[in-house]
């Protein structure tokens, strides 16, 4: 005699982005991971530029033309922001490693400081670079 088959149990669904309301801590965590991955591409651009400089004047001139274009400048600007943002995120994590900054208000302050600081420092770096280039 066959035993009756049990009805399949419904598996619990894990909450995901469709369930949670995005909050600053979630967004900053995701952005930190994305900037870390994007640094691979930006570092490849720096390596290409260095290899072109070592390859001779014609290769370097071509790289300078590409990097000096509007799209090239935009990519370099975003790479600068990515590098600074990821570095400041690392400083934030270093602060947390000391056991500080875990209160809600402190965390929010560090998130905002990371975001505002990365934007401000990127603009300052680019203004300084443009002023030095023109001098």
UniProtKB/TrEMBL annotation:
Compartment(s): Membrane
Binding note for cofactor: The heme is bound between the two transmembrane subunits.
Record's signal peptide: none
PROSITE patterns: SDH_CYT_1, SDH_CYT_2
Superkingdom of source: Bacteria
Signal keyword on record: no
Main location, first listed in the record: membrane
Keyword field: Heme, Iron, Membrane, Metal-binding, Transmembrane, Transmembrane helix
Membrane topology category: Multi-pass membrane protein
Spans traversing the lipid bilayer: 34-54, 66-88, 109-132
GO BP: tricarboxylic acid cycle
Entry keyword Iron-sulfur: no
Cofactor: heme
Assembly and oligomerization: Part of an enzyme complex containing four subunits: a flavoprotein, an iron-sulfur protein, plus two membrane-anchoring proteins, SdhC and SdhD. The complex can form homotrimers.
Family: Belongs to the cytochrome b560 family.
Function, in words: Membrane-anchoring subunit of succinate dehydrogenase (SDH).
Name under which the protein is recorded: Succinate dehydrogenase cytochrome b556 subunit
Native source organism of the sequence: Hansschlegelia quercus
Recorded name of the encoding gene: sdhC
């Amino acid at each position: 005699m066959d035993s009756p088959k049990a009805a399949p149990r419904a598996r619990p669904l894990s909450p995901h982005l469709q369930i949670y309301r995005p909050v600053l801590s979630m967004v900053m965590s995701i952005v930190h991971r994305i900037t870390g991955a994007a640094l691979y591409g930006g570092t490849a651009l720096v390596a290409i530029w260095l290899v072109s400089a070592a390859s001779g004047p014609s290769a370097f001139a071509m790289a300078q033309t590409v990097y000096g274009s509007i799209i090239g400048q935009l990519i370099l600007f975003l790479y600068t922001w990515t590098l600074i943002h990821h570095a400041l995120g690392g400083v934030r994590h270093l602060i947390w490693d000391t056991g500080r900054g875990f209160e809600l208000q402190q965390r929010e302050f560090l998130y905002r400081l990371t975001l505002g600081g990365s934007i401000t420092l990127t603009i300052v770096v680019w203004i300084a670079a443009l002023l030095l280039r023109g001098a």
